[in-house]
Amino acid sequence: MSLSKSCLRCANYLSCNDKRKSASFRCERFKNYKAADSLIDLFSLKLVPDEKDLKGKPKGVELEREKEIEEFAADEVDLDEDNKKSLFVYEAMRKARDPLTNTIQDVSIDLSDLKLAANFYEFCKETVGSKVKMPFARQLWIAYRFFGEYCPRCSDPEYNDITAIEVDAEPEEVLEHVTLLRHGQCPSCGATKSKLVLNEEINDYNEIVMVLGQRSGKSTIASMKSAYHVHRLLKIPRLASICDGIQDFTPVQGTFVGLTFARAMKNLYTPFSEIILRSEWYDQYHQALKHYGNVLGKELYRQSTQFLRYNHLNLEFYPMGPLKRTLRGDTRCIASIDELGHFPFDVNKTDSDDDEDDERERANADEVHISLSNSLATIRVEVWNLYKKGINHVPQGLMLNMSSPSSWKDKICRLFKESQTTGQTTMLGLRMPTWDINPMYQRDSPFIQNMYRRNPIKADRDFGANPPSLSSSIYSKGMVQSLFSGFQHHTVAPQYHDSVIPGEEKRIFGKLVTKRERANWPPSILALDAGHVNNSFALALMYVAGEGLVVPSVMEVMPIGGRKIDFPKIMEQVIYPLIEQCNVHFVVADRWNSILLLQKITEKHPDVMSQQYTLKPKDFKTFDSDFVHTGNLVLPSLELPIERIEVVQNYRKELNGSPASHLYLQFLTVREIQGIITKGDGFTDDLYRTVVLGASRVRDKKISEHISKFQPKDRKELDFSDKIIVSGRSGFDFDHATGQIIVR
Asked: Which of 180, 230, 412, 530 is most buried, with most CB under 10 Å away?
């Protein structure tokens, strides 16, 4: 039989699974095609799907199909001059067909001689070349697990745990215990990745969360993964020809995002670009593209310091800052985010805030992550459908998140917790200290020890990947709830000054509102924490009753909407009225920027003593022992239900105008680290510190002697000097209606 009448001239040839097909065979389904005079003519070749009814689970693509075709061509066939064109067509068809995706390559650009790495290890070991160093052993473990390039049937189950690999092991030692897939197929048992995924023997990860200590090489390994991912994309046909949901004109993008554009460039894109520039394989690939570009008269690729574009595949890669508007809507094949744990995560906006404010968009880690995740959805869906067809080698839509942590509430730690939930099969999460990844650093090395000596909390967070706990271990909920049994006598109604003069800053202040009138006030103390830009201006009014402390009013003015606190207005409309109405004769402030306020108060009210005082660790301990743990503290009742307060995510929006509820939340979230009391992650402690500040001064003999001179003349309502409150939670009751302390 001549070639002109054989399988090689059949339009069904590439998609046919009949084992009999060869250069000397023709079946009943033979369908002739128009002869091609050149490679370009093959663009018009339309493949007819295989009519064979395949039952059961789909089989993987036979990766040795090239060898099979060569065997067909080697059959005993006598070629004459008329068959030379047919042989040319056979050779063109062989080169055009991509055996990994069973589709047609762009035959006008022949890149078949450039070898595709069988897996990530081979890419690092052989493909990129000697100028790029191999990853550490545990970095290799992370990569082959993430890419799903191992056979669970043929690998040692012990190595499902990364700690089974010694941190200082050579990468080659891993291969003694783990069988890596080659082009998506196990070389030992023949299992394909698609089968392993569909049978749920391995997870099909499309996102990785690496909570790793600083200097662990997380940015480097992320760049290696990105370069490998692009390498695989360059060796398959244009994604639009494989994926039904991608238009031929749709650019498919890879984006590297950092806290700023400069950081994205420095920490992610530049290492990625350098790997490509130093790689022997990429150098050959780019030289080939230049050659074919000259032949075809068009630019096939361009690489600069800020982007990499492959025009023939409609792929482009670039760094970006975290602006959610510019990250939305694109179709992506990979997205990488550097130091996600250090993106501000407590961006608290009110309904009046402008959603188009670029700075706020930069600060929202959740919005950046959501925008990038959504842009990867198209390819993720396509790849899953390709698994069902037995195609293993179209790269997933990957998201790479890496960071040292800043707190348990930051985005990277929240993602890590999500990755650990039962049933999670698409997100690989790891949290490891520097010395468990990078063998160059040990826990007892001088550098690490010195960092721990300087600041153990910061060092444990940065290098130990162990952020401080989110919730407070200082106070129990039941104890705190029992303290809020009083009545809120005052509140502050916020007022705004938005100037129409260009460049003049917007300001916020308030006006005192009396919720509960009293005929006589005991000599009282007013404590201030004068925030200005980011922190609230907090106030706490209090007085002593025997051994107890009553706080009838807590107030705050939050600097929202980009406004700053207007100190003069706060003085005129809040502080002076409180002093005059509530028998205040001592004012204390924590911040150095309050000194001018205190001086103004003394000038206007000479009988008011003032003091600037910085809280010390012993003040918090005294506050707890004298007032909190004994129950000798009365705080205003809560404006909101406890169950609502405890799930607050945005305190600026949800607790604005509810200062007692905000104080309750601060009691639950402040924490102690190495004897230092500090605010909870993503929260604040202004009101809490203000109450502690006032309480720290009530025992001062000079202050108590001063304010005792101003006892109210009518003492029938409440005797503040003679009654002694018994220590202990059962020592007294508080009358909500009259504000009286009642001894039991």
From this structure: 412
